[in-house]
Amino acid sequence: MFRFMKRMSRKAGLPPGTLVHLGDKPTEAVTIRLIQYNSETLVEEDVQDIGACEPEKMPDGITWINIDGTHQVEVIEKMGRHLGLHPLTLEDMVNGYQRPKLEEFENYIFLTLKMLSYDTEKNELGMENASLVIGADYVLSVHEKAGHVFAPIRERLRKARGRIRKKGVDYLYYALIDAIVDNYFGVLEKMGEEIERLEEELLENPGTPTLQQIHDIKRELIFLRKSVWPLREVISALKREDSGLIQETTRIYLQDVYDHTIQVMDTVETFRDMVSSMLDIYLSMVSNRMNEVMKVLTIMASIFIPLTFIAGIYGMNFEIMPELKWPWGYPMVWAVVVLIGGVMVL
Amino acid sequence: MFRFMKRMSRKAGLPPGTLVHLGDKPTEAVTIRLIQYNSETLVEEDVQDIGACEPEKMPDGITWINIDGTHQVEVIEKMGRHLGLHPLTLEDMVNGYQRPKLEEFENYIFLTLKMLSYDTEKNELGMENASLVIGADYVLSVHEKAGHVFAPIRERLRKARGRIRKKGVDYLYYALIDAIVDNYFGVLEKMGEEIERLEEELLENPGTPTLQQIHDIKRELIFLRKSVWPLREVISALKREDSGLIQETTRIYLQDVYDHTIQVMDTVETFRDMVSSMLDIYLSMVSNRMNEVMKVLTIMASIFIPLTFIAGIYGMNFEIMPELKWPWGYPMVWAVVVLIGGVMVL
Amino acid sequence: MFRFMKRMSRKAGLPPGTLVHLGDKPTEAVTIRLIQYNSETLVEEDVQDIGACEPEKMPDGITWINIDGTHQVEVIEKMGRHLGLHPLTLEDMVNGYQRPKLEEFENYIFLTLKMLSYDTEKNELGMENASLVIGADYVLSVHEKAGHVFAPIRERLRKARGRIRKKGVDYLYYALIDAIVDNYFGVLEKMGEEIERLEEELLENPGTPTLQQIHDIKRELIFLRKSVWPLREVISALKREDSGLIQETTRIYLQDVYDHTIQVMDTVETFRDMVSSMLDIYLSMVSNRMNEVMKVLTIMASIFIPLTFIAGIYGMNFEIMPELKWPWGYPMVWAVVVLIGGVMVL
Amino acid sequence: MFRFMKRMSRKAGLPPGTLVHLGDKPTEAVTIRLIQYNSETLVEEDVQDIGACEPEKMPDGITWINIDGTHQVEVIEKMGRHLGLHPLTLEDMVNGYQRPKLEEFENYIFLTLKMLSYDTEKNELGMENASLVIGADYVLSVHEKAGHVFAPIRERLRKARGRIRKKGVDYLYYALIDAIVDNYFGVLEKMGEEIERLEEELLENPGTPTLQQIHDIKRELIFLRKSVWPLREVISALKREDSGLIQETTRIYLQDVYDHTIQVMDTVETFRDMVSSMLDIYLSMVSNRMNEVMKVLTIMASIFIPLTFIAGIYGMNFEIMPELKWPWGYPMVWAVVVLIGGVMVL
Amino acid sequence: MFRFMKRMSRKAGLPPGTLVHLGDKPTEAVTIRLIQYNSETLVEEDVQDIGACEPEKMPDGITWINIDGTHQVEVIEKMGRHLGLHPLTLEDMVNGYQRPKLEEFENYIFLTLKMLSYDTEKNELGMENASLVIGADYVLSVHEKAGHVFAPIRERLRKARGRIRKKGVDYLYYALIDAIVDNYFGVLEKMGEEIERLEEELLENPGTPTLQQIHDIKRELIFLRKSVWPLREVISALKREDSGLIQETTRIYLQDVYDHTIQVMDTVETFRDMVSSMLDIYLSMVSNRMNEVMKVLTIMASIFIPLTFIAGIYGMNFEIMPELKWPWGYPMVWAVVVLIGGVMVL
After folding, report:
1. Helix or strand or coil: residue D115?
2. How many angstroms separate the CA atoms of C50 and C48, rounded?
3. How far is A287 from chain B (nearest CA, A)?
4. Quick check: D291 and E296 CB within 8 A?
5. Residue B16: which pLDDT band, with cuts at 50, 70 and 90?
6. CB contacts, 8 Å: B298 with chain C
7. Would the CB atoms of A317 and B312 count as touching at under 8 Å?
8. ipTM reported for the complex, 2 dp
9. Dihedral angle at the C-alpha atoms of A39, A43, A48, A54, nearest 10 degrees?
10. What is the DSSP code string of D136-202?
11. What's the whole-model pTM score?
């Protein structure tokens, strides 16, 4: 469960800028996909040779380099040298536990975010890092693992749908960020459904597994919140940055993304409030049920213990017990028993 | 219950500015009502043709276009093109889960709020979106569903009551916002009554349904709070904006609306404090009642268990038990029983 | 109990500036008391005719108009027109649920506060609105109900005690605010005594009524806090305002009032912390007592249930039970009983 | 226990600047001690006549007037007039419930703090007010009660230890503040020891007295926090003030005091966190112990209740009960009893 | 456990700048290690004579003086005089309870941090102070105890690995801070593992020791948080300082350290959230288990108490009890017993 913070200490003692891959190590090879386009043409290819990623090849063209997989640090290092990125940027790219942040450098902006997924089978939140670099005429996107979040953007580029082919490199940059943030809503929806299901279970038939599941989702939310909070700051810093890489007309779209991050944060806070409240309800439900159980016990005991005492009295073997000889003694005991029992029930 | 956040993810992957209606889909057709007035005349009509909404038709007149229903996105789109609104504005208008916000554009201000209703039968909070656009000589109001919140304003316009006919388009804009915010008080009042009822139930006869109702209202408050918090910011931004669309004399009225939103927020926070406190009280009441039950059980058991033991002793069949032969044996047992019972009761 | 927020919605739909009295409706008539003074003379009278309230009547004089009762809105309206007050100011004056606030207008400052009282019989907090307007040469004070808070100031004015007769209109304004805030300490003291009493009850003999009283005082504190928090802001704004109505030498006195409001807020927060902690203690006490009860039950049951079993064994009617024939059988049973009983007690 | 907020309301209705002593009334007389020194000489005397406190008497000398006791308000009043202090300053000096604050006047700075003590016998926090005034060439210190906090400074002055005799009046001012804040650490240490003792008691043998003591220390911390929070602000304001009374070289020492107040606040917050957590632990411990008790009861009852039933069966007096006649009937019952008992124990 | 705040009061009453060692007193002697280097040469030696620490000895060289142990205050004092440090700086260096802080002096910057360690045997957090001074051409590092945190940096210096030998004194300063902060991750990882272990124990087999361990780790986190919070401020102040001692190119590395401190803080907050949630779960688990126990008891009692009563009835010795004579009486009782028992089980 602490998968989000394991082996953070592996880098202690190394000089800054040393590339150490932190995170799960997938087995697939790293793939580099190059898309170059302008409003007329679009070229798309999987490249092996990083040298092929020449932004200058297409006149007035925009180059989008997408790397899936960060576990082969030498690929990242070569690409970094090719594009003139700072060693600290590369270090952050390969660190799967990197907190979302934005850094402006002389000739590029570096931004790293979390990408989320939710496994509805195991009710487990997945997180991976995504780094986005924007330069004068290129965008570099680096994923920890292969994923499908950018597929609709590739589709829009290929089919020249929307404004995307006509706009500049900053619009592509925005579109990628937007795709990642939009993807959060799907994850939140799945978590919302799980919370809803738990809530029903809680009010109908709460047991120890319910408690464990509430605890699990609470923990997922703690981690989710930790990933989402810095996002707001990051997008807000991007809106305000003044490097010249982001054009004025794109800022309104960034404002839109910003609104979405606020909505994501709101929803996470709402979920947290709900789950907290569920724990209180659980405790109340358990107390309630104990109350029911105790009432049954008390009623049974209060009725039958005095009756058993009366039966015990007349089971005594004293030689002189006048009642035992009365002809109506036995029916009288029954009468008393019924009387006492009736009073107790009331 | 999660009706306030369902299907938020439907838009993921679409280009920005694509109009997708999010929210419940009512079956009624979208209606457009056009009111044009100046201090002398007022013309009111339901229009089909959006082209008829010509602000310029009446000299020195103010045009108020009101659209009820956002599920026919093409109507919104046409109107948007007609009035020169940004695609992102239109996208927010048809998104029923949009967070309240204010955006200034070159020639209009866009503001979106939540409208509340409270179903006292089901104790359920209703929310819908309302968008308000102010331009140089028109106000456009868009509701998710048809409603009666603006009816008093229409009445005041028709009867030329108050200052409204003599003031500018910004005063109309203020009046619409004021109507929405004033409407909150009615909803809060109904929730307050429900909380009060629950409080009495809690102290008189708390049961599992009380718990569930406390939980329900707590959740309603979580959602309500999420809708009300951004309101303060929005109204505060409107007060301070400097586009020239809002005149100086109207600002004091906006300050008044601002005070109301603060009061709404205060009340929501007060309700939250109360409901939180009710959960604590519930737990204490349950513990208290368990205590009562346990006391009864303990008293019954402590009195009768020793007595039954005594009766059991003299029910033994030993051949030599001298007490059984004593003439006063049986009365003595009774004496002991009464004595022990009396001591125990004390 | 929700008396502090009832019928807030009565005004929805009315044009702004419509005077609607919100709050309890007392039966007494509204009284207007006029005091005019300078350092030499003082004239005091109850007036019927609002036109008599002429600030100009006394040269270099200060006019203090005090209105007790806001339920006759026409009186307020007339006075407002007489003094040239904005309709929104008048609307706030007659709204008994108005949140404390300060508003600067061109030629006057409007300030509204809560006045508190505490009914020690019912342990109920009372709140009413007080509005204070300062103009160039007059102060207008409006109370929701008649009260005695300003009596010492009238006394000081009549007897020319302290600096008050020699100072300007802003000093009178300060003196009235100071009287209201000073009055809070008395209310807090009474609540403090009630909390102290509850605390003793809690540790000595807690029951369901204790719980209810803790709940009641907690709610009173929620409302009290809501009224006191905005006060700080209001006084702070008054200190900083620059309309020329408040002189430099008076600001140090306003700082003093500000310090008092901070102390009031501190005390309210302290009370809240205490009452919250009392709820926790209550729950612990109840659990503790249940523990005691359960221990008694367990001891009784653990001792007598095995003994009763032994007695039961020798009450069986088997034909062949050798122990029954032993001469020492019966004493042996007693010995075993005493032995087991003794062991159990240990 | 509410000794920190009693009779706050005694002053309501009096004109501002009226000196009313609030707080405990000690019986000893007020003492005034005058120390005048420069780098060569030092004169120290107890004075009766306030007129003797002439800062000008010693050329280039620094005058330190220390007053122990504020209950004779006329002494404070005379001294105030002698030194030219504002009536509001004097009012604050004699108010034992005054919140820590700093006020700059034209020719002096007034600062009031809380002095703490901790009675380890009764585990009771003591608080008294200390006021410090710095003028051009004098420092006036006023204590609510006589105390020993300034003794080391007198010693350092007499023996000319450290820098104190060579530095200006602002350094003396700093030294007095430093002495008061340093004294807090001793009080916190004693509270820390008490918390530690309670923590051990809690985990070893918690009872109702433990609960009461946790509650008591929690309340002490609430009051302590209330006194310490404003301190930070006060020292921070002193660091930044620009009246010319504090020299540049002294500011680094004030920064040091400021660091200490932060550490004091940190420690108080830490204590609060700990005590809060102790209440939770207490509740868990009580539940835990109840669990143990219930387990014993359940085990006893589950074993012996079925056995007693079996014995009861064979105690019935039916004429035809075949088992009673079996020669092995009685041993068989024992066998069944041992069997059932054994199974139950498992 | 209160080892982090013991004897803080030892210094009360002493003049400021008096060096008093606060903290544990190790027995080893204080060691001073001198490293001087430029891009070509490196000299490393353990020195006795503080006079040997001449920054000027190596042209264009950087001097790093490292002192292990602060308990011999005279060593610190001599070094301080040698390098021209302010007495307050020296006082802070030897105070083991010093809160992390940054102070800029005319010709040096002083920074003090906490160094952490975690004893996995005892699950105990260790803390010690580290002070770092940067001057024009030297860095002074002072540790409370000898440690290995700086070993990798010495190694990098010796082997001229990374940029460190080519960069200025500010880069060395950064490298030392970075080493301390990186070391935090290891400690957090160990605590995370302990929390994970406790979480499993909690859901599988919670007992009083679990509770105590949760309480222990909660307290460790309270202290950890207190040490980590000021760190953020300190590093942030260092980033922004403008003394000329920190070069522009080093700031980006400080930003990197800053990001790490944010991540450390995030993790501490996450741990706190988790441990808080564990206490709630514990309480729920205990209630749950009590519920189970009570159910068993209630089932046993509800079944057998009525049955025992029936057996008691027919154990009575009345002369006239017709059922006793019925031939099918005894089997009928058994039938009733089985019937009632069966119904009860259902």
Report:
1. strand
2. 6
3. 7
4. no
5. confident
6. 293-294, 296-297, 300
7. no
8. 0.79
9. -40
10. SSEEEEEESS--STTHHHHHHHHTT-TTTTTS-HHHHHHHHHHHHHHHHHHHHHHHHHHHHHHHHHH
11. 0.83
